[in-house]
Amino acid sequence: MPNRPIHVAVSTPLGAGYTAYKAKNQNGLSGSLEIMGGALGGFAGGVAPDCIDPPYCPGHRALGHGALPVAGAAIYWHQNLDAWQQNLRRMADDHRQRQSIATDPLAAAWHTIAEWALRLLSGILAGFGAGYLSHVVLDFGTPRCLPLIC
Q1: CB 12 within 8 A of CB 46
Q2: Which of 1, 13, 26, 38 would bridge 30 by S-S if both were Cys, CB 3.0 to 4.6 A apart?
Q3: DSSP SS3 for 62
Q4: pLDDT tens across 5-35, in order?
Q5: Quick one: the chain helix, strand, coil %, rounded to 5?
Q6: What local confidence, expressed as pLDDT, does residue 141 receive?
Q7: Residues 69, 149: contact at Cβ < 8 Å?
Q8: What is the reported pTM?
């Protein structure tokens, strides 16, 4: 039965890898920040189902592991991910432009931090979904399998 170290060992690189695929048109620091965010999101997504349904509870593998709720959320995530990432990248590009014309050092620092945070968030969104799905797929192969609903 997969435990937390196995889920983390699978979900973290999977989140980074999926994010690298989604960020293939991003270059330099922009792409690197998204991939780092993907690793963070993959880690968080890989442990999230057990945070929703803790393994020590009798109701383990309830809502957070249910095939139908997870499938519904995965479809919603997949259908909206590109639009979410485009919006975050557009906002990050706007902050990059504002940083380049800022005359105040504090304003320039703020725009740099905001740009980096938005690029990390873009990666986190992609990585989280991939990590969450990896957890559910790993649990599907166990003797207890997954519940249909919860």
Answers
A1: yes
A2: 26
A3: coil
A4: 999 999 999 999 999 999 999 999 999 999 9
A5: 75, 0, 25
A6: 73
A7: yes
A8: 0.89
